[in-house]
Write a structure and sequence with these properties.
Layout lengths: L2 H10 L2 H8 L4 H10 L2 H12 L5 E8 L3 E7 L5 E7 L6 H8 L12 H21 L7 E5 L2 E5 L2 E2 L2 E2 L11 H17 L3 E2 L8 E4 L2 E4 L6 E2 L5 H20 L6 H7 L7
Helix pairs in contact: 5-6, 7-8
Bound molecules: adenosine-5'-diphosphate and magnesium ion.
Amino acid sequence: MSKVDIDKIIEKDIGIPKKFERREKDADNRKTYDEVFDRATLLIIYKLITNKVILSVDYPISTGKEGNVFKGTTPEGKAVALKIYRMATATFKNIIRYIDGDPRFKNIKRNHRSIIYTWAKKEFRNLERMHKANLNVPKPLAFMKNILIMEFIGEDDLPAPELRHVEIKQPAKKYNNMIKQIKILYSKAGLVHGDLSEYNLLVRDDKLVIIDVGQAVVYDHPHAKELLIKDINNISHYFKRRYGIQVRPEKSIRETLSLREDE
Ligand SMILES: Nc1ncnc2c1ncn2[C@@H]1O[C@H](COP(=O)(O)OP(=O)(O)O)[C@@H](O)[C@H]1O
Ligand SMILES: [Mg+2]
């Protein structure tokens, strides 16, 4: 497709670029626009719109290292979150580390594009497993190439805040519940999150919602145990530091998870 066609699509069919263009003065927005909406990604958004998966992309929620998250709307008027993995700057070394050793992704091609696509697919599959295990995660809705579409966690049009940005009620209860969720994640969904922290937990309806599960690995992945302990320690340290909660010692958690000392 020619450059002109793409511009037409941008003008006519995709909600967000118009809005972005109006805000062009805002340097940050402009940067986000250029980095996220490369031609290939614009075409995928266009496809998602013509396939009626989404109606529009409304506004950016977050700009991250490897991707950006946007609020979108479906043709039925439902709010969704679109996570768009950036094609240009993704940190491949990091990604490869998690994909290698995961039997689900044994036969992937090793070029730049395929790896990014695999990563979006991996986050989708991980969300599916977690959702099936009744964990509190955004419901996965669809993925296409480097774009993942999931339930929007928020109220009306406002995204839910990250745990680090709010003061929660009953922190001890929430801490214990989180440890339980990690256990269900491990024993029922067969996964270890691998990047669990106050950054990747959202607070909605006074409950914690687990997000950012692209890097989650299967329980028998060579790094699984080490990541599991890291996740638990991150959560324990946060609740201890911020709320003075008496956290469970690592030893007792290891016992609960039936892990040996040397694992
Ligand atoms: N489903 C969602 N609903 C609402 N906001 C979301 C959703 N997923 C992510 N976000 C927001 O976007 C931020 C970045 O998403 P995340 O998946 O953690 O990506 P990364 O940290 O890799 O950039 C989150 O911290 C959260 O504020
Ligand atoms: Mg995150």
